[in-house]
Inverse folding.
């Protein structure tokens, strides 16, 4: 048993980054909440000019 744990550790460390590659339901729900918050912000405080509107569009595109 004591030899098994150190042998398993490198395998787990190499597999850990692969778990972050898939977008799960929590990730999608978080994105929907972010988008809803941005829509509410735009409704309450609309962009005042074309430059601010363009800046918000660019911010959304980069996210």
């Amino acid at each position: 048993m004591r030899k098994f744990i150190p042998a398993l550790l490198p395998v787990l460390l190499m597999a850990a980054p692969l778990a972050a590659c898939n977008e799960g339901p929590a990730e999608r729900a978080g994105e929907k909440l972010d988008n809803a918050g941005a829509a509410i912000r735009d409704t309450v405080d609309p962009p005042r000019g074309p430059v601010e509107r363009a800046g918000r569009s660019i911010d959304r595109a980069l996210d």
Q: What stands out?
A: The first helix runs from residue 4 to 19. Helices lie at 4-19, 25-44, 50-62.
